[in-house]
Every structure is written in C-alpha cells, then in structure tokens.
Amino acid sequence: MKKSNGNKILVVVVLLAVVAAGAVLAMNKGLFSADSANAADKAVLEGNVQTITSELTDNGYPDLVVQEGVPVRWNLHAAAGTINSCNNALVIPAYGVEVELQEGDNIIEFTPDKTGTIPYSCWMGMINADVLVVDDLSSADTKALAARSETGDSNGTAGIPSCCGVQN
Ligand SMILES: [Cu+2]
Predict the structure, then answer these.
(1) Measured in angstroms, how far is the CA atom of residue 60 from the centroid of ligand 1?
(2) What's the CA-to-centroid distance between 8 and ligand 1, angstroms?
(3) Strand extents, DSSP E, the chain
(4) Dist CA 34 CA 26 (whole Å)
(5) Residue 129 Cα, ligand 1 centroid: separation in angstroms?
(6) Is the pTM of this model over 0.85?
(7) pLDDT, tens digit, for every residue of 135-166?
(8) 26 CA → ligand 1 middle, Å
(9) Local structure of 150: helix, strand or coil
C-alpha cells in the first residue's frame, strides 16, 4: 500500500515536471518567434515560380527575399483584425503593384527583373519594407539581409507610424 502511494506521488511529480518543462519551452518559442518577427520572409522556388507566405501585422510589413528573374507569388495573409486604415493597401512602385488588402489570402504577383533592394510601403508611405532581390536564393542569408535592410533609416517595421494610430 505504502509503496503504491509512493509510486502514485512519483508519477504526479513527473507529470508536473513535464508540464512545467512544456510551458517553459512554449514561452521560449513564443519569445523566439517575436524576436524573429523582423527576419525577412524568404521565397521558395517551385518550378517556374517562387512563393512566399507572410502574415500581415497591424503595424508593419515583412521584408521579402526573392530571386531575380523568377515570377513571385506572394500570399500576404491578413488575419481578422490586422487590417487598418494605414496598412490596408500596399504599393511596390518599382513593379507597378498596388493592392488593396482583404481579410484572408492576398495574392500579390510580380517579377523581380534585377538584383537589389526594392522598397515598398503602405499607400501613404508610412510603413516601409524592402524586397531584397538576390541572384541565388539558396545562398542568400535571410537574417543578414534583414539586418542590413533595418540599418537603413527609412526601413524596418518597428513601431506603428503615428498616422496609423490617428486614422485607425
Ligand atoms: Cu500607412
């Protein structure tokens, strides 16, 4: 009897330890993804196109890493509540892209014709991000590219522009 109770307690203690460890891992994972939110979203080559899937946030756009010469199919997914009067339309002037975002999937297509950094923004130019066009996706260092783009004075997605707070 005693031994059996002891085993039960041991099992409970082990279970609690597993739950606690899981909670710590989940927290770390959450912190990590928040930390990497500014990393660029890198395209994936699929035959003759390259695809990217991004999540819209209410205060920024992601930097994108794409390969020169391959048509891009970018899905900027907008979860409920993320679209506001500031981020609701984005423009990529170099590619003639002007898109009004809808809740759900937003497929944005363009073909990067040469390497370099292509700026894009919301329709009012307050949220800025970059399309980083490289000659070879497989050798592109996404984090280095993102870090580089965020040292630029008009770049980065940190903080909500004042216009957005006012108009939202
Ligand atoms: Cu805006």
Answers:
(1) 9
(2) 59
(3) 41-42, 44-46, 49-55, 64-67, 72-77, 89-92, 97-100, 107-110, 116-122, 128-134
(4) 12
(5) 12
(6) no
(7) 999 888 766 666 665 554 444 444 455 455 43
(8) 33
(9) helix
